[in-house]
Amino acid sequence: MIYTVTLNPSLDYLVHTDALRPGRLCRTDSEALHPGGKGVNVSLVCAALGLPTRALGFIAGRTGALFASLLAETGVEYDFCHLDGGMTRINVKVAAREQTEMNGTGPVIPPEALEKLAETLDTLGEGDWLVLSGSLPADVPADSYAKLLGHVRGRGVKTVVDAAGDALKNALPCAPDLVALGLRELDELIGGAPHSAAGITACARELQQTGARDVLIACDRGVVYTPQAGAGLFLTYAPGETVQPVGMGSAMTAGWLYARARGLSLPETLRWAVAAGCAARSSPWLPDRAAIERALVKTGAPHAV
């Protein structure tokens, strides 16, 4: 089972308009409301690929109830802790000539709620995956991901971290099986991130010296995959129109997990990750399996870095 943790999930309200005109009335051409958050998105794409998954995290208020009902409609299993105060955030994504996002804050998560979440992980064991994904809410300690990783250590649980800043830095010594990040997050972590595949691979090796095992880094032209053992690999994105970028990184993580679950080679694992990300980029929202398979046909073979 693939368990995903999203500490601050969201209702993602996506609207399309011909142009965003600040200070003036704007009318939408279409709108849609989805359950969101990076970990939730990983679960949704994993489920689309036929992988068993359960989404964990926190919800609050009436928006939390609506979030849960929308997630239930997708068929994804979930077990969210209900907080007494606040409300699940609403993230507004305005797609015009370019996409503008306004993300909500979300509820305050008290320490006892984090402890309850950690206790939920007691059921995980050999063969399970734990995916910790997304930025930490402002009131949550920066070592929270590290503590959750420590909670499952020694039980045969494989782990993935897709985070940024201190949350990622503190998690690295816990030896996550995969660290997934973008170039912006890499720059935050090390300062002055390179843009060449070779330079990015060298940075990934530094993260591995700190504790990470496999490292997946999305950059401007494609994805650099640096496994713990073996040469780094680079694969450019398949050609295609960018409809909207939300969920691209989460889809890549889900594609990587799918390939790992099937026991595919490292090059094929990267192909599935890139194809899933490109399918998300080219879809109105998160891709289904058919969209990912179409993108896979257009995805070439990676080359060693």
What's the topology here?
Blueprint: E1 2-6, E2 10-16, E3 30-36, H1 38-48, E4 53-60, H2 61-74, E5 77-83, E6 89-95, E7 99-102, H3 111-120, E8 129-133, H4 144-152, E9 158-162, H5 165-171, E10 178-182, H6 183-190, H7 197-210, E11 214-218, E12 222-226, E13 233-236, H8 248-261, H9 266-281, H10 289-298, E14 303-304
Parallel strand pairs: 1-4, 1-8, 2-6, 4-5, 8-9, 9-10, 10-11
Antiparallel strand pairs: 2-3, 6-7, 11-12, 12-13, 13-14
Structure characteristics:
single chain; 305 residues; alpha/beta; 10-stranded mixed beta sheet; 14 strands; 25% strand
Helix content: 25-40%
Walk across the major sheet and give the strand order: 5-4-1-8-9-10-11-12-13-14
Beta fraction of the residues?
Answer: 15-25%
Order of helices and strands: EEEHEHEEEHEHEHEHHEEEHHHE
How many β-strand runs?
14
Rg over C-alpha atoms, rounded to the nearest angstrom: 18 Å
Biggest β-sheet description: 10 strands, mixed
Tell me, briefly, the overall form: globular
List the total number of helices: 10
Structural class: alpha/beta
As an assembly, this protein is single chain
What is the straight-line distance between the termini? 33 Å
Give the low-confidence spans.
none
In short:
The protein has 305 residues and is an alpha/beta fold.
Write structural notes for this entry.
This protein is α/β, with parallel strands linked by helices and 305 residues long. 37% of the residues lie in helices and 25% in strands. It contains ten helices and 14 strands. The chain has helices spanning 38-48, 61-74, 111-120, 144-152, 165-171, 183-190, 197-210, 248-261, 266-281, 289-298, and strands at residues 2-6, 10-16, 30-36, 53-60, 77-83, 89-95, 99-102, 129-133, 158-162, 178-182, 214-218, 222-226, 233-236, 303-304. The strands form two sheets. The protein has a ten-stranded mixed sheet with strand order 5-4-1-8-9-10-11-12-13-14, with helices on both faces. Strands 3-2-6-7 form a four-stranded mixed sheet. It is globular. The mean pLDDT is 94.
